[in-house]
From TrEMBL:
Domain ABC transporter: 6-233
Primary residence: membrane
UniProt GO MF annotations: ATP binding
Membrane topology value: Peripheral membrane protein
Location of the protein in the cell: Cell membrane
Coiled coil: none
Keyword entries, A-Z: Antibiotic resistance, ATP-binding, Nucleotide-binding, Transport
InterPro entries associated with the record: AAA+_ATPase (IPR003593), ABC_transporter-like_ATP-bd (IPR003439), ABC_transporter-like_CS (IPR017871), ABC_transporter_ATP-binding (IPR050763), DrrA1/2-like_C (IPR025302), P-loop_NTPase (IPR027417)
Keyword Hydrolase (UniProt): no
Gene source species: Amycolatopsis nalaikhensis
Protein name stated in the entry: ATP-binding cassette domain-containing protein
Length: 302
């Protein structure tokens, strides 16, 4: 299957009277790692299940490479469900081989791929163990291997990082980046916003079944002014009060100032220098976490 963009186009879904998705659209481009974030119950799992085709949308369409996803193209998607879907009593290697064969690989290819991912994901010593006897983190590694074992053209992962230790997070991050670099559109949901900010090329924020922001982290955090961190050891409290477009957010050994887009940072530097030496003067843009709080504030989801 060739490279392409995964397009989620105006999908909607109701559960009875509850509107879970209301015209959700976003693209995950070939070679892109896309972070899908939103509060509990915002609609992430519903969107991903529809993208995979295990759940039917009431409206809208999902396309890959310009074509509507069909039963055949669906087998080219690697999916990691939130409710981990492994066979508890099956051994790790047997399970991966079985899943690869189910996706149409020959016995030889299935074995080769299964052993490859077992090695890559640090599961070599567990390959003959039943899945149910593994720790949760290792079960998750097997689940990732299960999503990858058939060489998918698209990866859709529901909270792949939850419950992983820092080393496993590094392994997972590396594998996802590598797949993206190989031209696979990769979308994953997560509540770990620092990780999403660090890892993803683009991010989409969903709130109550609607996309409220889509873009690179730099694009999304560019608006709304920025912060300046100033350390001027000789400064007296109130040194920055009254500077145009400047709000004092924190004052102490280090002062944190909120700057409106119109504020003149050089005037702030001059005011700081007027108090004596300045040992730190740096801009800090909004973090994804701050942006997220603003984007989803004032309403719970459930
Ligand atoms: N099978 C179902 N029947 C009825 N309502 C459902 C069903 N599945 C999900 N919902 C509702 O649809 C909304 C979206 O749920 P969804 O699981 O997609 O959210 P989510 O963003 O994945 O949440 P979380 O971060 O908690 O996993 C929620 O209000 C949820 O209660």
């Amino acid at each position: 299957m060739t490279e392409g963009t995964l397009e989620i186009d105006r999908i909607s879904k109701r559960y009875g009277a509850k509107v879970a998705l209301d015209g959700v659209s976003f693209d995950v481009r070939a070679g892109e790692l896309f972070g899908f974030v939103g509060s509990n119950g915002a609609g992430k799992t519903t969107t991903m299940r529809i993208a995979l085709g295990v759940l039917a949308a009431d409206g809208g369409e999902v396309r890959f490479g310009g074509r509507k996803i069909t039963h055949e193209t669906r087998t080219h998607i690697g999916y990691m469900p939130e409710e981990r879907g492994l066979y508890p009593k099956m051994k790790v290697l047997d399970q991966l081989v079985y899943l690869a064969e189910l996706h149409g690989l020959s016995a030889n290819e299935a074995h080769r791929n299964a052993e490859n991912w077992i090695g890559r994901l640090g599961l070599a010593e567990r390959r003959k163990d039943e899945v149910q006897k593994l720790s949760l983190g290792n079960q998750q590694r097997v689940q990732l291997a299960a999503a990858l074992v058939h060489d998918p053209a698209v990866l859709v992962l529901d909270e792949p990082f939850s419950g992983l230790d820092p080393l496993a997070v590094d392994v997972m991050s590396g594998v996802l980046r590598e797949k993206a670099a190989a031209g696979v559109p990769v979308v994953f949901s997560s509540h770990q916003l620092d990780l999403v900010e660090r890892l993803c090329d683009r991010v989409g924020i969903i709130r109550s079944g609607r996309m409220v922001a889509v873009g690179t982290v730099a694009e999304l955090t560019a608006g709304g002014g920025s912060k300046l961190v100033v350390t001027a050891p000789g400064a007296q409290p109130g040194w920055a009060a009254g500077l145009p477009g400047v709000r004092v957010l924190e004052e102490g050994a280090t002062t944190v100032l909120g700057l409106d887009p119109s504020a003149d940072d050089q005037a702030v530097l001059a005011a700081a220098l007027a108090t004596g030496p300045v040992t730190e003067f740096s801009r800090r843009r909004r973090s994804l976490t701050e942006l997220f709080r603003d984007a989803v504030s004032d309403k719970g989801e459930r």
